[in-house]
Amino acid sequence: MTAFAAIDHHQSAKADPLEVFRARAEARAQLVAHGLHSLQDTVDTLQAAAETQGLVARYGQAAVQDILAESFARWWSVTAEIAELEWLAELRQRQEVAEILERISAPNRRPTEKG
Question: How far apart are alpha carbons 111 and 43 in whole angstroms?
Fold first, then answer.
């Protein structure tokens, strides 16, 4: 028997289940951040997957929740920043429109000369 025969390549090639779950959670968090999935449905789906795959039984609910919290917190803060920037842009646009409307609706006045 050679040294290679003793190695189970399939077993050694398996990824860590928690890291695979973390990658799935981060990918789903990006979809939520971009408005393509709802937060509640996505978290429920990931939680169900963690239970079905035995991650909760093997590593505990706290580990699963930590992964979900980390994944979604990163994208949640980015989403909040984007929402704030969009709100500020909309507010500025409304102010500009109000200024234009004010100029249009004001009667044509000639500037008075001070003298």
Answer: 63
Distance CA 1, CA 107 (A): 99
Domain contains 73:
yes
Residues 17/52, Cβ–Cβ less than 8 Å: no
Range of the domain at 53: 16-105
User: Can you give the pLDDT of all 115 residues of the chain as single tens digits?
Assistant: 455 555 555 566 789 999 999 999 999 999 998 889 998 999 999 999 999 999 999 999 999 999 999 998 877 777 677 777 888 888 888 888 888 888 888 766 555 556 4
DSSP H/E element including 100: helix 61-105
The residue assigned the tokens 């939680």 is 47
What per-residue string of b and e applies to 67-85 under the rule 16 or more CB within 10 Å gives b? bbeebbeebeeebeeeeee
Closest CA to 15 of 62, 69, 55: 55
Split into its structural domains, the chain has a count of 1
